[in-house]
């Protein structure tokens, strides 16, 4: 072997050795070494999500903890809590070593005491640095607004909108300056909340085209799906000259505490009140009948079928033992839902068990099917109205503020107030989404506030009615565009539901628990 060949082989061997060394020392997965001041001994819970029933458990000894995780494809947020204590915190990890140090701080807000973890040091994943940078910038921008002083409703809304605008501005600044980062993709995902397909595309265009994180892929999928159903109401609705006014002679102010409504075949309104009573009100606002069902727990919603049977839904509850701040207490927890059917005389006809329902915030009966808005499960369940058996579910719901409601028309089209998405969506009874419209914004065509609309309905001519809260806006969508009904006072405060029902003459009825009923008629 000559010297030249020997040198080449030696160099090649060194390269292989270096490569092997680098492969062995390259960090796979992640390791978290943490310290929590204020917790000497205990158990740290690592959850996949906030409601994870089987979290991973790690011991805290002398305020310190350590754990490892598998190799990550991209940065991931951890959800951590201390067992038996109301202490939750989280941060991002990436492959490599993460060092965390924090301390528990006891605080009080609106008369309620709680604990939070204040971060002292956090290193090892740049996403945490990016998040802190944006958070600090927003905090600086927010300091110019004072929400602690007494404000009028208009002033409060105006300042809230300015705070929201400053939040968007800070986030947009980071995205434009760092378009190829994981956190920029995460911020775009957050800003896309309440946008339509066009709005999501504009946000995605701000990012580096090569960025391919899970958030970016999810937004692209969402945008493509929305583009299949998004419409402009004026382009699909044929009704014209649809204008409404408030009926001043309607005697509705005495009907307080209404939480839900249904329409009887004679155009009388069937109402459910906070105390669990069923009251029937005629078209002039006069109460003509009432009864209070004897149920194990207070009903949450009701529905009326075409033969005027009244379906009253209420939760079944069981006692469970829970720990909070190291103390054990017994609480009542929802274990299911039952539906009791009455006639308008208050006579009980039948009882249905509704499998899998966790909450019931709205209900309608049509075509021998009972549809139930399950806010907690984020679906509208479709049940057999005779047996209570579940048949299917309308998915893709984004409830907010404990609200989720819908309506139906004579064609059995289901119109959903998907308020958490700032959208109105139409489904058939198989669960297929046919059309959708709406986005977050300030114009008449948009939906405002933290989440809207809260109620929707079809008119017989095909026009669509929406109801927004905080402030109250009732709008009619037709071929002529969007018109707001004038003269409707503020019906609720804050994030509260506003029931609405439409009779066979297309008269609208709205209810305020504190102010009674309002009737709107076509001009």
Number of domains: 3
Kindly state the number of beta strands.
32
Instruction: Indicate the CATH topology of the largest domain.
Output: Neuraminidase
Proportion in β-strands:
35-45%
Number of H- or I-type helical stretches: 7
User: Briefly, what CATH class of the largest domain?
Assistant: Mainly Beta
Overall, the morphology is: globular
Helix content: 10-25%
The span between the termini is 104 Å
* Multimerization state: single chain
Determine the mean pLDDT.
Answer: 91
Which regions are unreliable across 5 or more consecutive residues at pLDDT < 50? Answer: 1-26
The helix/strand class is alpha+beta
Q: For the CA atoms, what is the radius of gyration? A: 28 Å
The CATH architecture classification of the largest domain is 6 Propeller
Summed up, what is this model?
This protein is α+β, with helices and mostly antiparallel strands and 523 residues long. It is 20% helix and 39% strand.
Q: What is the strand and helix layout of this fold?
A:
Elements: H1 3-25, E1 30-37, E2 41-47, E3 56-61, E4 64-69, E5 76-82, E6 88-93, E7 96-109, E8 112-123, H2 126-142, H3 153-177, H4 182-191, H5 197-204, H6 214-229, H7 233-236, E9 244-246, E10 258-263, E11 269-273, E12 278-281, E13 287-291, E14 301-304, E15 310-324, E16 327-342, E17 348-354, E18 362-366, E19 369-374, E20 379-384, E21 390-394, E22 405-408, E23 414-418, E24 423-427, E25 433-437, E26 455-458, E27 464-468, E28 473-478, E29 481-484, E30 500-502, E31 508-512, E32 516-522
Parallel strand pairs: 1-7
Antiparallel strand pairs: 1-4, 2-3, 2-5, 5-6, 7-8, 9-32, 10-11, 11-12, 12-13, 14-15, 15-16, 16-17, 18-19, 19-20, 20-21, 22-23, 23-24, 24-25, 26-27, 27-28, 28-29, 30-31, 31-32
